[in-house]
Design a protein that fits this description.
- The structure holds 3 protein chains of 3 kinds.
- Chain A is mostly helical.
- Chain A has helices spanning about 10-20, 75-80, 85-95, 100-115, 120-150, 155-175, 200-220, 225-230, 240-245, 250-255, 260-265, 285-305, 360-365, 370, 380-390, 390-395; strands at about 35-40, 55-60, 60-70, 185, 190, 330-335, 340-345, 355-360.
- A 3-stranded antiparallel sheet of chain A has the order 1-2-3. A 3-stranded antiparallel sheet of chain A has the order 6-7-8.
- In chain A, helix 5 (about 120-150) packs antiparallel against helix 6.
- By secondary structure, chain B is an all-alpha fold.
- Chain B has a domain at about 145-405.
- In chain B, about 65% of the residues lie in helices and about 0% in strands.
- Chain B has a two-stranded antiparallel sheet with strand order 1-2.
- In chain B, helix 4 runs parallel beside helix 14 and helix 9 runs parallel beside helix 15.
- The longest helix of chain B has about 40 residues, at about 70-110.
- Helix content of chain C is about 25%, strand content about 15%.
- In chain C, the strands form 2 sheets. In chain C, strands 2-3-5 form a 3-stranded antiparallel sheet, with no helix packed on it.
- Chain C is of the alpha+beta class.
- Classes of the chains: A mainly alpha, B mainly alpha, C alpha+beta.
- Chains in contact: A-B, A-C, B-C.
- The interface between A and B is large, with 43 and 31 residues.
């Protein structure tokens, strides 16, 4: 992919040059030093989670430089926003981080509500929390499955996908009619109320999930081969994590206890009792375990929310058609499954946003690749890349 | 057992309800029981193959004497027929083994596996795959060394076939070729495969294939050593290198209760079997030691540049070696064709042999789908720093125990 | 001594993993063998759209609500009843993203445009993506072109009876285009 975007440091290739402190990665192989070679982990690859290209500079088996090349999944979502009305944009947020679409919907609606200063009914808030946390569990389950496949364990993938995640998706289908692109969280509340018997089913699922976690532990998490492959690999130190702006489970694995649901609670999160899972080492195993522990905490939150669900309206006082927020700007963020998912919205009082930018956590987290891949063997690259848990839909938007 | 709540309340299809499941289970068990019972009955009817072959050979000798057929013709027939039977067996076995692996893998992963091809649970799936591979285009990369590229699959598969010669498929010397040094022959010839791997990696004109081939070759060569040394106690105890002889040394009962199988030998038997099993898994390039095949995420394996039937040859070789390792394990550790207790002697020996072999094959498959992959350097460390010292300790222990018995 | 503990601990952990896979080998598979078996979908499942021209009041709300601009309609003002009569209504199924915004905004009861449980919709021709409804021919015709609805016998059952018409089991399907 050739891109001639001009940034402050020059074209993409020049930036890459300065990063790798050597020949540009478009160079032919003969021109690099004789003991180094360039390996292109191309956009078509069974182990990159989406279409990601990483150019690796190898010295034998050891990686000496890495440059991620993005943009293969760019669909111009932010530009499309300028031609859609506010309610119409929600479906585009679904397709950003398609693994936790509820949280994407919610981040955008949060921002618009900030701009409009709209009051959201309590029931809607609780429903948002339930939907968001269930979606977070689904996203982490997918991570467990795909990370296992990257390491070579084929079986946990099917348990995570075929049993637990399918149950969550079935729950969502009964709730709003779709399995991945929900369009559920709306400006001012949510779109559908719970159907009959949904609360019981969700509670059953949560109980089932807790027993399954023990199974995942025995099969994958504490498997000596798995721990051997992931412990001590790809260490991201605390300072580097903060310096790169890493958020979410990656940050918590490096020892920083920062969770937006606790430090700056939005919605009704202040009412729930849960812990943030923090680990100290910052290696792949810690990143995996943080997400696995988060599933447990999400189950707790869902249980409490289901128990404390108040009766009431599900949508606040918001015009059904011709929604015009007042002119101004707002930035709303929430704790997504991969980090802090933020939406920056500039409105000029019209039907469509004037400018909308999405702070995608995977995009920021991906920047650390240049650092944490260096010094590890080629076989570890897959493990490290998998453990950062990126979604290319979010990275490229 | 973890059972999903959706088994009852969820939007599953009607045959997932408890009654439907019970019906399916009962039906599967009945069908399986009928099949296995039928096979068992058939084999009991056939009786001991060595007896049958003896009778057939006596009949042929009589006929030859009557019609004046020269003696060398008879010897030729007595050599060619068993070999062709074994060769035919090796062709047919992977068809079953591949289907079995797909089914076991599927059920471990709570899915169903092949169901469509062939009326019952996709039994003809492997045949369909084989036909597909035959019809595929044979691609040779430009710049590849054509002769070596062509010869590499042959060099990988041929030793697999040859190694089946001394394996006793039952009692009474039911092997293709009677050999005094059968064990040494098998272990030696199976080492020739490494050359084929290197040829495959080198001839593909692809630096990642070379790397992959080198890694696979290093892995295979390293793991042969603990495998060999782990089998030494068996030889020490059995007193012979012949596979038929080692099998016969395991007949009988120990204290009238336990079959005199080598795996029941205190400590030494179990350690030997474990080291042999792990090394065999590494030899056949299966997970958790499958860096050669599956690290084609980054570095291509040695057989990436092969398509169609050539690739199928590598695939066949893997399954043939798996069966070979399982057969060795069955003969050396589980008593080969001997029934565990004399009461079960009515079941012919080849049934016992196949049952034991397929049990070990099942172990191979089970381990493959349960564990992630080891990294290359950890793999080599595991071999040289763990398996090898323990196999040597095992030999010392075996010697000590044998000395104590005398 | 700690060496043996590590080895023993690892072997035990590996054994636990093997036990889990063995247990799963004998538990029922979760596969639903499509197309012989199909899942029962929930009521709110957002499948392909269906339209009832006899209920529609041509208010244009769905046209404006759709994010993909897949709906278009034309109406003519009827001077006697002082209402708008629907001339034609088109949905471009290539563009529909199944978001249900059109169904939510539709003011009629029951809804004139709504999602059905049809997920097996397929077309063989790009022209067929644009399906048209006309009020004078709400029932499916016998001709081939554009009658994709008739190919899927189960569609009629999934769509359910149209409450505004005489309750026949086949709802309004797109007219021949």
């Amino acid at each position: 992919m050739t891109t001639e975007l001009k940034g402050p440091a020059g074209t993409v290739n020049e930036m890459a040059d300065s990063l790798m402190a050597g020949p540009s990665f478009e160079t032919k192989m003969e021109r690099i030093s004789e003991h180094e070679m360039l390996l292109n982990m191309g956009p078509q690859h069974p182990s990159t989670h989406g279409v990601l290209r990483v150019v690796l500079k190898l010295d034998g088996e050891v990686v000496t430089g890495a440059v991620p090349d993005l943009g293969y999944l760019h669909r111009g979502v932010e530009k499309l926003a300028e031609n859609r009305t506010y309610p119409q944009f929600i479906i585009l947020t679904d397709r950003d981080d398609y693994l936790c679409a509820m949280l994407n919907n919610w981040a955008y609606c949060l921002t618009v509500e900030k701009l409009m200063k709209v009051e959201i009914p309590q029931r809607a808030e609780y429903l948002r929390v339930i939907a968001g946390e269930l979606n977070r569990i689904a996203s982490h389950l997918l991570f467990i499955g795909t990370f296992g496949i990257d390491i070579g364990a084929f079986t946990p993938f099917l348990y995570a996908f075929g049993r637990e995640r399918e149950m969550i998706l079935d729950l969502f289908e009964q709730l709003c009619g779709a399995r991945i692109t929900y369009n559920y969280v709306r400006i001012g509340g949510v779109s559908n109320d719970l159907p009959e018997g949904w609360v019981e089913k969700a509670k059953k699922f949560v109980a089932h999930m807790k027993t399954c976690l023990k199974e995942y532990d025995n099969l994958l998490s504490y498997n000596p081969i798995f721990m051997d492959r992931t412990k001590g690999i790809g260490v991201l130190s605390r300072e580097k994590a903060i310096a790169y702006g890493v958020t979410g489970p990656n940050l918590r694995a490096s020892g920083v206890n920062l969770d937006l649901r606790k430090s700056a609670p939005y919605g009704v999160y202040a009412k729930f009792d849960f812990e943030t899972s923090v680990r100290q080492n910052g290696d792949c195993w810690d990143r995996y375990m943080v997400r696995r522990d988060e599933i447990e905490q999400c189950c707790r939150i869902v249980e409490q929310a289901l128990d404390g669900l108040p009766a009431g309206e599900i949508l606040g006082k918001v015009p059904k058609a011709n929604l015009r927020p007042p002119a101004g700007e707002a930035y709303g963020q929430l704790e997504g499954a991969r980090g802090w998912l933020g939406v920056y919205l500039v409105s000029d009082g019209g039907l469509s946003p004037y400018r909308l930018h999405i702070r995608a956590p995977s995009y920021i987290n991906l920047a650390t690749l240049q650092e944490i891949l260096v010094g590890w063997k080629v076989a570890d690259v897959i493990a490290i890349l998998g453990s950062i848990d990126i979604v290319l839909g979010e990275v490229d938007r | 057992m973890v059972q999903g709540p959706w088994a009852v309340t969820g939007p599953w299809a009607p045959n997932q309800t408890p009654e439907g499941l019970r019906r399916r289970y009962v039906r599967s068990i009945l069908v399986l029981g009928v099949l296995l019972g039928g096979l068992l009955g058939l084999s009991v009817l056939i009786g001991e193959p060595s007896v049958l072959f003896g009778k057939a050979f006596a009949f042929l000798t009589a006929q030859a004497a009557r019609h004046g057929v020269p003696a060398w013709a008879l010897t030729a027939v007595s050599l060619v027929v068993p070999c062709s039977i074994v060769l035919g067996l090796i062709q047919v076995l992977p068809i079953f083994m591949v289907w079995w692996e797909m089914k076991i893998a599927a059920h471990i992963q709570v899915r169903l596996g092949p169901m469509q091809v062939g009326k019952w649970h996709g039994v003809l799936q492997t045949i369909a795959d084989g036909i597909k591979l035959l019809l595929k285009e044979d691609i040779v990369p430009t710049g590849a060394d054509r002769i070596i590229h062509f010869l590499a699959p042959i060099v990988v598969v041929a030793p697999a076939y040859i190694c089946f010669a001394p394996i006793p498929f039952g009692m009474g010397g039911l092997a293709a070729v009677q050999m005094d040094v059968g064990l040494l022959f098998v272990l030696g010839i199976s080492g020739l495969t490494v050359i084929g791997l290197l040829m495959a990696g080198w001839s593909s004109n692809n630096k990642y294939s070379v790397l992959g081939g080198l890694r696979a070759a290093a892995q295979m060569v390293s793991y042969e050593i603990p495998r060999l040394i782990a089998l030494l106690p068996v030889v020490m105890w059995g007193g012979t290198l012949s596979l038929g002889g080692l099998m016969d040394a395991q007949q009988g009962l120990w204290r009238g209760v336990l079959p005199r199988w080598f795996i029941f030998y205190p400590v030494v038997g179990q350690i030997s079997f474990l080291i042999f099993l792990i090394s065999s898994i590494a030899e056949t390039n299966r997970t958790p030691f499958d860096i050669a095949e599956a690290e084609s995420e980054l570095t291509s394996g040695f057989h990436t540049e092969y398509s169609g039937m050539k690739w199928a040859m590598f695939f066949l070789a893997e399954y043939a070696y798996m069966f070979l390792a399982a057969a060795l394990g069955a003969v050396l550790f589980f008593g080969g064709g001997w029934a565990p207790w004399p009461a079960l002697n009515f079941i012919p020996s080849f049934v016992w042999f196949f049952a034991k072999t397929f049990f070990i094959v099942f172990l191979f498959i089970w381990i493959r789908w349960s564990y992630p992959r080891l990294r290359v350097d950890r793999l080599m460390e595991f071999c040289w720093k763990f398996l090898l010292p323990w196999s040597l300790v095992n030999v010392a222990l075996a010697g000590f125990l044998i000395l104590m018995r005398q | 001594m700690s060496y043996f503990k590590t080895v023993g601990g690892n072997a035990w952990a590996l054994g636990k993993g093997l036990w889990i896979t063995l247990r799963h080998m004998f538990s029922p598979a979760i596969t639903v063998q499509y197309p012989h078996e199909k899942l029962n979908l929930s009521d709110r499942f957002r499948g392909a759209l269906a339209f009832h021209p006899d209920i529609c009041i041509s208010c244009d709300m769905c046209v404006r609500a759709c994010p993909s601009l897949c709906i278009s309609l034309e109406s003519k003002r009827n001077e006697e009843t002082k209402r708008k009569d629907l001339q034609w209504y088109k949905i471009d199924f290539a563009k529909c993203n199944y978001c249900r915004l059109c169904e939510e905004i539709c003011p009629t009861k029951p809804k004139s445009v709504h999602h059905t449980r049809e997920y097996e919709l397929s077309f063989t021709n790009r022209k067929e993506f644009l399906q048209e409804w006309r009020p004078e021919a709400p029932q499916p015709q016998g001709s081939d072109v554009g009658q994709i609805w008739n190919r899927f016998v189960t569609v009629g059952q999934k769509l359910g009876p149209n409450p505004k018409t005489n309750g026949s089991s086949t709802p309004s399907a797109p007219a021949a285009s």
